[in-house]
Design goal:
Blueprint (H helix, E strand, L loop, with lengths): L4 E5 L3 H12 L3 E6 L10 E5 H10 L2 H7 L1 E3 L1 E6 L4 E6 L10 E5 H14 L3 E4 L3 E6 L4 E5 L4 E4 L1 E4 L6 H7 L6 E13 L7 E5 L4 E6 L4 E9 L11 H8 L5 H8 L8 E9 L5 E2 L2 E3 L5 E2 L7 H18 L3 H31 L6 H24 L3
Parallel strand pairs: 1-2, 1-12, 2-8, 5-14, 12-19
Antiparallel strand pairs: 3-7, 4-7, 5-6, 9-10, 10-11, 13-16, 13-17, 14-15, 15-16, 17-20, 18-19
Length: about 375
């Protein structure tokens, strides 16, 4: 390995994946996390086949599959429940299914176990205060008073990354898209055996199975001005935004009886120009690239980052060429996800109620081929 002692900033999906993969290769890994504990924000998360392959490299694929619900792709409807088109996924192979969704809490638990089994040391409520890279090592001072030398510092600290500015400078903050997503875990309807998507009036709803017992409801809507909604109003606001939906989505709307379990997130995007590293500092995952969730690839791209970085650090002969090889493998793939996700978001949000019949016909004619093209690219080795 080109590195022997590494600091990972951020104990999310990508950070824990990197800690496990590096620790399994004999690297001494410290992880610091700004949050006070390992509690998870969010609801459920779909893992497409490429993400499952990264989880297999960590050694947790079987555990993730047991905890989740495997399914074959997406079926599109209009907001009144009329079928538009079924798009079985081209992802997957004999080893991994096309998709497997599970709760974020379960995925976090599994990855945390893998990182700890690889001897990674995790400290919560801790942030970076200063970094000094002398070309050979990085001296890191942290908010808990520690001062340590590391061969590499990896920022997996999310959309609000403090590491990002330290590595690439200012002016790269995530940009609000104008839209937000509402999510809530609910009891799975027996009819929901894959992802069901419903095109509405400048909105899109859907349900994704998470287990035999549960699924999650989501709704993407315009949120002009990037408002900060009061959590106490979440149920009222979500019901209002689901007005006009019929069928299973309408039934779920009518069953909302309070704000408990509802999560709202503004949809932000960032794609750093290459390279994502400076010297012995690198930012990855949402800190470097954050896309709309329309391809459910956020966690997958972060886990791929972790797997490719570990591989290049293992096979390389010097750090700079290894990081160049990493960027050569990652940038265009991540940009494909970013650009395709953005195009889907903008296209769907432009469809109003009057345009749904025409848009449905267009989706019927074009979606299968468009989906196949993106999935064929993502099904190739990363």
């Amino acid at each position: 390995m080109l590195v022997h002692k590494v600091l990972v900033v951020g104990a999310g999906i990508g950070g824990l994946g990197a800690a496990a993969l590096l620790g399994q290769r004999g690297v001494q890994v410290d992880v610091i996390e700004a949050r006070p504990d390992s509690a998870v924000l969010g609801v459920g998360i779909n893992q497409p086949a490429n993400s499952l392959r990264a989880l297999a490299r960590i050694g947790v694929l079987d555990e993730c599959l047991r905890a989740g619900y495997s399914h074959s792709g997406n079926t599109f409807f209009d907001w009144h429940g009329n079928l538009i088109v079924d798009c079985p996924s081209r992802l997957g192979d004999d080893i991994v299914p096309a998709n497997s969704a599970l709760s974020r809490a379960e995925l976090k638990r599994i990855l945390l176990g893998a990182a700890e089994s690889a001897q990674a040391k995790i400290r919560y409520g801790v942030t970076v205060e200063t970094l000094a890279d002398d070309g050979e090592q990085v001296l890191v001072r942290t908010s808990d008073g520690a001062s340590e030398l590391y061969d590499l510092v990896i920022g997996f600290d999310g959309a609000k990354s403090a590491m990002r500015e330290m590595v690439v400078g200012p002016d790269h903050d995530p940009v609000f898209t104008g839209y937000g997503v509402w999510r809530k875990t609910v009891r799975r309807d027996p009819s929901v055996t894959n992802t069901l998507l419903f095109q509405g009036d400048r909105s899109k709803a859907g349900v994704i199975p998470l287990s035999q017992e549960s699924m999650y409801l989501f709704l993407v809507t315009p949120e002009p001005g990037n408002p900060r909604h009061d959590r106490a109003d979440f149920a009222t606001l979500l019901r209002a935004r689901l007005a006009g939906y019929q069928g299973i989505i309408g039934a779920l709307r009518d069953g909302l009886d309070g704000p408990e379990g509802i999560v709202y997130s503004p949809l932000n995007e960032v794609l750093l120009p290459a390279p994502w590293h400076r010297g012995r500092l690198v930012v990855l995952g949402d800190a470097a690239h954050m896309a709309a969730p329309h391809l459910t690839q956020g966690a997958g791209m972060a886990l791929e980052d972790a797997a490719v970085l570990a591989e290049e650090l293992e096979r390389g002969t010097d750090l700079d060429p290894a990081m160049a090889a990493f960027m050569n493998r990652r940038y265009e793939r991540v940009k494909l996800v970013h650009d395709a996700s953005h195009a889907i978001l903008v296209g769907e949000m432009a469809i109003d109620a009057a345009a749904i019949p025409t848009a449905s016909e267009h989706m019927r004619e074009t979606l299968p081929a468009q989906t196949a093209a993106v999935e064929d690219a993502l099904n190739r080795p990363f």
